[in-house]
Amino acid sequence: MNPDASLITALVERWRPETSTFHLPCGEITITLEDVVTLSGLAIDDDAVVVDIPDEEWSAICLRLLGRVSVDLVGGVDVVRIVWLRVEFSHLPENASHEVIEQFARAYALSLIGGVLFPDRSGSTVHLQYLLLIEDWQRAGRFAWGAAVLSYLYREMGRSTLHIMHTGTSLSGDLGGWIALLQFWAWERFPHLAPRDSETACSGSLA
Predict the structure, then answer these.
(1) What's the sign of the alpha-carbon dihedral 98, 104, 110, 116?
(2) Taking 50 as the threshold, does the pLDDT of residue 107 lie above it?
(3) Residue 42 gets which letter from DSSP?
(4) Which of 8, 100, 166, 171 is the least crowded, having the fewest Cβ atoms under 10 Å away?
């Protein structure tokens, strides 16, 4: 889905980090945990998404959980490029072992985490700390991903708002977080802002 830059910018410019709300002429409003679970289906009341600092080198973690290492992981680099994940894990070999299947599944989940749920401002890399969260699939299923997504989006909007206030410049598109979630929330709360073309609206479904 292509983001509506004008809508997102208008919302961020009205975001107030001190209250975590949008200040509109009609009053204050915000995206809530209930909105997140309704729009995305992600859990909001399970275990907190917390990553322990590992003793291993990031390259060793990458090799252990993905079966291969990005050439970018040198000199203490702790992120991989999303395009590397998509290229390296684009085709699952025939008769792949259970271990290889899990590695490909982790690569897909990691690209989803870095490209959709918790994208940074570049939108092109993902931190390997998230890989530790999906090492154990049963444990990963107990995390409150929805609450973490909302918290991350709050933080990114706060950072962008402070940048706008301090520099007097516009957002210019460098906003991290799940932008599609924010856009769909705005469409739900302000239906007159949503696309009138039903085909366009359906093609942008979060599902």
Answers:
(1) negative
(2) yes
(3) -
(4) 166
